[in-house]
Amino acid sequence: MVFSSVTFLFFFLPVVLAVYYLAPERAKNPILLLASILFYAWGEPVYVILLILSIIFNYFCGREIDADSENPARAKRSLIAAVAFNVLILFFFKYYGFVLEIINSLVSEEIAYRELALPVGISFYTFQEISYLVDIYRKKVHAQKNVVNFALYIAMFPQLVAGPIIRYGDIEMQLTGRKISIRKVGQGAALFVFGLAKKVLLADSVGKIFEQISASPAGSLSALTAWIGCISFAFQIYFDFSGYSDMAIGLGRMFGFEFRKNFDHPYVAKSVSEFWRRWHISLTSWFREYVYIPLGGSHCSASENIRNLLIVWLLTGMWHGAAWNYIVWGVYYGVILVMEKYVWGASVDQMPRAVRHIYTIVIVLVGWVFFFSPSLGYALRYLAAMVGGGAGIADMEGWFILTSHWLLYLAALLCSSRAGHMVFRKAIGAFGVIGNARLKYVAGTVAYMAVFVVSAAYLVTEGYSTFIYFRF
Amino acid sequence: MTETKKETADAGLSGMIHDGGDSYLSGKEPRNGSAGHSHAGLFGLMRYAAAVLIIVYIVFLMFQTSVSSRSFDTVASAVKDSLASSNLAERDGQRFKRNFGLNSADFDGVLYYSSESVMSAEEVLLVKVKSASQIRAVTEAIEERIAARTDAFEEYAPDQAKILEDAQLSVRGRFVFYAASPDGAKYREVFDSSL
Q1: For the residues A341-364, what does the mean pLDDT come to?
Q2: Domain map (residue ranges) of chain A
Q3: Nearest-CA residue of chain A relative to B64?
Q4: Residues of A in contact with B104 (CB under 8 A)
Q5: Which of A71, A115, A208 sits opposite B173 (nearest CB)?
Q6: Quick one: closest CA in B to A101, which residue?
Q7: Which residue in chain A is spatially nearest to B41 when comparing CA positions?
Q8: In this predicted model, what pLDDT tens digit does every residue of A232-254 receive, in sequence order?
Q9: B70 vs chain A: nearest CA distance in angstroms?
Q10: Does the bond joining A164 to the residue before it have cis omega, within 30 degrees of 0?
Q11: N or C: which terminus of chain B carries fewer CB neighbours within 10 A?
C-alpha cells in the first residue's frame, strides 16, 4: 500500500487510527503490528512471510547475543553468523541476477537462472535488524524480550517500506510507553499533509517533465533541456523521498512515536560533505556507525581513511541497486568526498557562499545523472548533452518548458529551501499578531486542510505513482 | 563523512537506555551462569530453525513464483508478433498514462496496444515492473480500467462489455499481462510460453 493512495488515505489510515486510539494501552502494540502486517501484505502478499521469518530469525539472534553477553567470544560468533545471514539474504535478492548477468557476459556459455522480484523494504528492514544486533553486541541496548514489540520495531508500517532506518535505542522506551496527545497528533497530521503535498503536488509534477525529457534520446537534447531534465529529477527525488519521510515521521507521531528527521534541506548545502549530512540522514549515519567507524573512521592514516571512505561509498551505491550506474554513483561520491577532504576542501571553504553553493549543486546534479540513467552509456551521453554535445546549447523545447512551468520550478525552489516553510508559518503566524492565538490555530488548521484537499483532489484526478525509494 | 557531535549524543542516548528501565533487569531471567548459556543454546537452536525456514521459503518461491530471466524485449517481441494480424495499434507512454494513470518510465518496460475504434474495448498490455511493490499498482489500475469501461459499454455495446468481463489478467514474476480481446486466451498463451 502507498501513503499517497486513496485506499490508504480514506480507508486504511482512518480505520487504523480509530481502532488504535480506542484500544486499551496493552492492545495498542498488537493492533499497530497487525495493521503493519496488513499494510505490507496488501502490496507484498508473497513476501510478507519472508518478513515474518526474518523478524523471528533476528529476534532469536538478538536474544542469543544478549544471553551470551558475558562470553564475548561466543557473542561475537553469534553476531557474525547473524549479520552474515542477513547480508546474504539481502545480497541474494538484490544482486543474484546482476552477478549472473556479469558472469554470463564474461563466459561463452550462458547460465540460465530464475529471477525473483525484490521484496519491498528489504534494504531498510535488514539494515534495522543488523543495527539492532550490533547494538546488543556493543551492549548499547538489551534484546527485546517481547516478540510483538520487536516485530513492531521492524515492521511498523510508517517506516517499513522506505525508512527512515530507525535505531532500536531511539525507540526502545517508546515501544513500552509513549504519550499520545492531541497536540502531538496534530503535529503528526500537519507533517503528514506537508509530505503528501511534497509528493503529489511537487514530486509528481516535476517528475512528468523529467519523464518527458528522459524519453528522448540523450543525444537529441540541447544543453538547456538536459539541465532542465536533471534539475527536474533533482527536485523529483528530493520531494518524493523527503515527502515520504515526512509522512512516515508524521504518521509515527500520530501513533505516539518520535523518529529522527531524515532530510534537512540538502540543496542549501555549501559542500558535498554537508549535502550528505542533510540527505537521507538515517542511511548515511547507519553507514558511519556500522561500517565507517568500525573500519577505523578518520582516526587512522590518510591512506586508510581514503580506503574507508571509498568502501563506504561503494557500499552506499550498491545498497541503492544492482546496476553499474549506482555503483559508479557511489564511487563518484567517494572520490569527491576524498578530494573535498584532502585536496580542495580548504580552498572551497574560502570561496564566497554563492560559489560554494553552485559548486555543490553542480556536483550533486552530475551525480543524479548517474543515478537516473538506465545505463552508463546513457549517463555519458546525457552528460555530453549538458555541455552542448547533444543538440547544441538551447532549443525550443527547453524554452517552452521553462516558460510554461516557471511557477512550478519557483515553488519547488522555495519549498526545497527553508524559506518555503518559513513563509507558510509566517503567513499563519500573521493571524496571531493581527488577531489572537485561537485565530492562529484556526488559520493553521484551515491552511493544512486546504493543502490536504488540494493534494487529495490532485490524487483522485491524476492517480498515484509509487515512491522512487520503494525500488531500493 | 566526518564524525560529528551526534556520535557522542548517540552514545549518551544508548548509555541512558542501557542503564534505564529495561525489564531485563527485573531478575526474571538470569543473564549469567549456566542458565544464561542454556538460554543462549535454546535461542541459537531457534535461530537455526528460523534460518532453515527462510531458506526453504526462498527455494519454494524460486520454483513457485519466479520466472526465467527473459528480458522485456524478448517477451514483448513474442507478444507483438502474435498481435501483428490484429486490428490493434501500438500506443505510446502518454496514452498508457491517460488510460491507466501510470508512468511508463516507472517500469522496466511497457507494451500497450489498443483498438483504433472507440467502439471497441479491445486492448493488450504487457508491463515489466521494477520491483514487486509495483505489481499491486499495475493490477489495480487494470482492474479500475476494466470496471470503468464495462460501465461505459454495458448500455450500448454488451458484446464489448463481455470481452472486458472475460479479460485475461496474469502476473508472472515481474511481468503483468492483460488482454481484453476475443483472442485474449491465445495472446495469453503466447505470453506464458515466451517466459
Answers
A1: 91
A2: 6-178, 184-404
A3: A116
A4: 211
A5: A115
A6: B69
A7: A64
A8: 999 999 999 999 999 999 999 99
A9: 9
A10: yes
A11: C
Please state whether beta strands B175-180 and B123-128 pair in parallel, antiparallel, or not at all (unpaired). Answer: antiparallel
Q: Give the number of other CB atoms < 10 A from CB of residue A310.
A: 17
pLDDT digits (tens, 9 = 90+) for B100-152: 888 888 888 899 999 888 788 899 999 988 766 677 788 888 988 898 888 88
Q: Catalytic site residue A320?
A: yes
- Cα–chain center distance at A56: 25
The DSSP line for A50-109 is HHHHHHHHHHHHHHHHHHTTT-HHHHHHHHHHHHHHHHHHHHHHHHHHHHHHHHHHHSSS
Give the three cell numbers for residue A183: 497536540
Res A60: pLDDT: 93
C-alpha to C-alpha distance for A1 and A464, rounded to whole angstroms: 11
- Do A120 and A47 contact (CB within 8 A), yes or no? yes
Q: Which of B43, B54, B129 is nearest residue A64 as measured by Cβ atoms?
A: B43
Q: Cα dist. A22→A19, A28, A31, A153, A187 in Å?
A: 5, 9, 11, 22, 20
pLDDT at A132: 96
Angle subtended at Cα A336 by Cα A333 and Cα A341, rounded to the nearest 5 degrees: 125
Any CB–CB contact under 8 A between B30 and chain A?
no
8 Å CB contact of B133 and A292: no
For A227-257, the DSSP string reads: HHHHHHHHHHHHHHHHHHHHHHHHHHHHTT-
Q: Quick one: which of A210, A306, A105, A66 has its CA closest to B36? A: A66
